[in-house]
Amino acid sequence: MADPDTRPTADGPQVPPAGEAPHVPPAADGPQPDRAAPGTGPRGPIFLVGCQRSGTTMLRLVLDSHSRVSCGPETRFLADMQRIVGRDWERLARFGFPREYWLGRIADFFGGIHGDYARSRGKTRWADKTPLYALSIGFLAEVFPDAQFVHVIRDGRDVVVSHRKRFGYWSAVKCVVKWPRYIRVARAAGRRLPADRYHELRYEDTVGDPEKAMRALFEFLGEPWEAGVLDYGGKQHDVAGKYTAEADRRRAAARTDAAIYGSRVGTYRRELDPFLRVLVRVFSGATLRELGYR
Known about the structure:
Elements: E1 46-49, H1 56-64, E2 69-71, H2 77-87, H3 89-92, H4 99-120, E3 125-129, H5 137-143, E4 148-153, H6 156-167, H7 169-191, E5 198-202, H8 203-208, H9 210-221, H10 241-254, H11 268-271, H12 274-283, H13 285-290
Parallel strand pairs: 1-3, 1-4, 2-3, 4-5
Helix pairs in contact: 2-4, 6-7, 7-12
């Protein structure tokens, strides 16, 4: 095995002067991703972010129901790349390529996969729903300079209840600290972006008046309105069966056939126990007040 610290020799790959991106010819065989732009259509990619259990899966299915937008399986790849380009930059720098080169390669790889997936479904634009990316908006904006970000926000008390029901009590305890962190970091990054690149979407507004909220969302995205996105349950999506079964149980409990409904708003009033209430007040109270939740 070669020494990982070995530098290229005269017979190996030539490193360009610092600040210049190397010329890397495409492979001779196999499909090539579209490198004209990070996005796959007239607009760039869409990143749907927010603390888990805030409604991001519901919004993912809404986006995926649009005739032009494909929102594929959840990923965590870019968060790993952020750590590598940051923490391991000294090692990467030994190749002699500037940071912009690495960001471009990440965009080519990740955007190429999503773009190919979108085209395989007859769609022209791709989206990614990964809640964790709420902590990486700044990095993603570097990798994809034309990306748009949709930050889904839900009452943190209901998010804690949902974590307890879905993942267990310890997850709910951790969520008391996790939720305000996601909100704080994502909003701070959003404030540094132009208004046409960052959009906040309240879960409560979405389930209260789905058409109004979704019309505003697609207007922000620059995509034509399609009423069928509100009936995402009647369309095919590549989601795990557990999500479909869970959605069916929720609709049955709410006694509704609608894909978007508001029966889970304010569940903390009935289901948040005294201990979690105290933790929420201490660790999430300031963020709740900042967002207008009373």
